[in-house]
Amino acid sequence: MAFQTGTATSFINLADALRLFATANGWTENLWAADGANQRLHLQKGSIYANFHAEATALILMGSLGYNGASAWDAQPSNHAGAKPLIRDGFYGSFSWPVTYWFFQHTAPDSIEVVIRYQPTRFQYLQIGTITKYGTWPGGEYYAASSEHPTVGIDGSGAMGVQLPNQACNFPGLFWSKSGAFGYAAAPDLLHCEIDSVVWGSAVRGFGGGAPLPSGLLTSASEHLYPLPQRSNSAFNGLTTLQPIELYALRPDAHHSPLGRVEHVRYAIVTNHNAADIIDIGGQKWMLFPWVEKGGPTDAGGQHYGMAIKYDGP
Predict the structure, then answer these.
(1) How does DSSP assign 12-63, residue by residue?
(2) What count of other Cβ atoms lies within 10 Å of the Cβ of residue 68?
(3) What distance in Å separates the CA atoms of residue 70 and residue 157, rounded to the nearest whole number?
(4) What does the alpha-carbon distance between residue 262 and residue 239 come to, in Å, rounded to a whole number?
(5) Could you give the CA distance from residue 58 to residue 207 in angstroms, rounded to a whole number?
(6) Are the beta carbons of 140 and 128 closer than 8 angstroms?
(7) Domain ranges of the chain
(8) Tens-digit pLDDT profile for residues 140-167
(9) DSSP type of residue 227
């Protein structure tokens, strides 16, 4: 594992820091170039093709199945359709630059996790990688971030609020599964899974009034199962019990097939932890972060949902 923390003064500066971190740890830089007033970055490792666009108010991510330097940043081969995962100003309050970032890079399978603290208690994340697959099927690469819509905030100030899982709208946790009761415009996380003639699957299983995605994903934390994360604090000592992030594909017969798991990230409850706390479970270290804000104003149920990222630093 490689690890780096520091500060960034803009989304372009953040993308540049990510570029240097990734290429120092085995990733290939296919392109780093100006795109008008913006900056584009294309990173690759194995079958992971991560295409970034750094703008004044956002760092936008798009996954693809290849790279073509002659194409626009968001017109790469076999990219996913619809809006794109991103971290952005205005998602849940404005950015206070400089922001603090944490970068993690893992192998077996490959992944990069980015966490930023843009206000003293508020966080966003961005993640690219490959899941540990169960069985043999084409795909496994995922692209995810806190936000999936360019204008609507986590406070529900529009048609699609982005709130915590005990509320009625979508949740910005990694692969947190929701059905499309509100006509979602896009999905915050996407998985390349060529199953049942579909190339890209999403944990948000509804577009445009709730029509189901052919390859919708159910995960180990969903609108149906979030009581399990709620109960993940140990009754013995009050500390979080880490929950693997398992992915399942919704099949045409309405059953789900297990696809695999996100190897280096776990669901966690941060009620009794601070951001960037390090815990040791069986000799394995994990660093904890809230998905958005520990006990924030949208956390009506009083829960403190977050993630643990595998960490073997000091």
Answers:
(1) HHHHHHHHHHHHTTT-EEEEEEEETTEEEEEEEETTEEEEEEE-SSEEEEEE
(2) 12
(3) 39
(4) 22
(5) 23
(6) no
(7) 2-310
(8) 999 999 876 544 444 443 333 334 444 4
(9) H
